[in-house]
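Key result, reporting period 2: structure in, sequence out.
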């Protein structure tokens, strides 16, 4: 059970890094290096950014839940 949640935590961590780097940069940040600084006038970009925000929030909640569950499992195992 601990192994399963450890693997899930690694997955959520990698996905969080990727998703944060995909966000559009507000100034001159790391996301500009990956094309985040290119401004597009398409109407679909706002929808894509909103969906990216939602996916990032879902991954963040999953990451946080994995940490809490892992800490409870390890506490029960050692205590």
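The corresponding designed sequence is given below.
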């Amino acid at each position: 059970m601990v192994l399963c949640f450890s693997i899930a935590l690694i997955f959520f961590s990698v996905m969080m890094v990727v998703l944060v780097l995909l966000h559009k940069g507000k100034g001159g940040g790391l996301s500009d290096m990956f094309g985040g600084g290119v401004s597009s006038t398409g109407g679909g970009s706002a929808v894509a950014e909103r969906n990216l925000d939602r996916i990032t929030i879902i991954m963040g909640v999953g990451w946080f839940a994995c940490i809490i569950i892992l800490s409870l499992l390890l506490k029960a195992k050692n205590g």
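The radius of gyration is 17 Å. The helical segments are 2-22, 44-78. This case is discussed further under Risks and Mitigation.
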